[in-house]
Fold this sequence. Notes:
This protein has 371 residues and is of the alpha/beta class.
Amino acid sequence: MQLEFQLDSRSAQPVYLQLKSELLRLIRENDMQAGNMLPPVQELAGAAGVSVRTMDHALKELIRGGYCFRRPKKGTFIGSAPRRRSSKEKQIAILYVPGFGLEYFNTDQADRGLYAGMRREAAGRGVDLLLVNNDLEYYLESVTSEVRGVLLLESEPLEEVMALSERFPAIRFVYVNYFMPGFESTNANVYGVFNDDFGGAFQIAGYFFRRGCRNVRIPSFELDNLNYMQRLKGFQFAADQYNVNLERAYLPLPPPTGGMEEMIAAGAALAEAQLRQDPAIDLFLCTSDLLGHGVYRYLEGAGLPGRVRVAGYDGYRVYGVLPEFSTMQIDFLEIGAQALAVAISRRPVPKQIKIFPNFINQETESTKGTK
Length: 371
């Protein structure tokens, strides 16, 4: 915010009223929005060349006029002061996606499915679903409808969620799909609805191990959530059950920085390199369908599908087409719907709910018995 005050020492108008007018001008010129915080009173006073007491007087005039409001120990904010909620007003759930708008849901298949499930459940229950992309605390304080719950679609820092859940104990905060480290130790009003990553991984790995696959590679991106880690644990548990040695199997990849094609290309490059080192590999267990698409793309070009098997996870469509290899298809629609139901419910529910994915078996009769 540019702080250039224009005060007239010869004016008969009191300085604090001149400051009020100048503050309103600066707010407009800097295109500040409701919920934005003004600089501290000491900084404003220094820029205007007046005492803190005089600047505070001007700020109180803005508050009295409804232009601003104060939060104790935090500062002065633009907008009307939060009103007390009425239980008779319409109930809402907040979907918090920091920094993004509705266009966000056109770019990611998982989040698009989650959002569709939330909207379906909200419509069926007569609840408004409000998309918020900044200053969640402000909305929790100032929205006039009754906030029943907050849906967290991204990997929000636990520290922020813990602070908000302590301040608003009557509101449920629900992590959706992304399982974060430390989730189990969060406050009682923090919940999660997740895919059963472990269970799905155990099922698909066990399927291929029962059919004789033993020389396995497991490509996986290293991400900051625990979803992929749960899948890796599921693969390992299945390997323990079927005496499959995964000592050399895990192939970590750095987090992707680009889009879908980058992830597919990473899978293809990894498959080519691994098969050059060991042509006897018979299974790629991928923690992501996009990696699986890359592996399968390479195998097709090398004429190896059927001899080398591919298993994926997610059930992602690439250019509108489901994978040609077996995968665990996550029910994003159901996860979103269940998350909305948990957020607005007042009944006791488990801290976390897991939705089991669907096994999409693309094995043909000719490949089911081959190694």
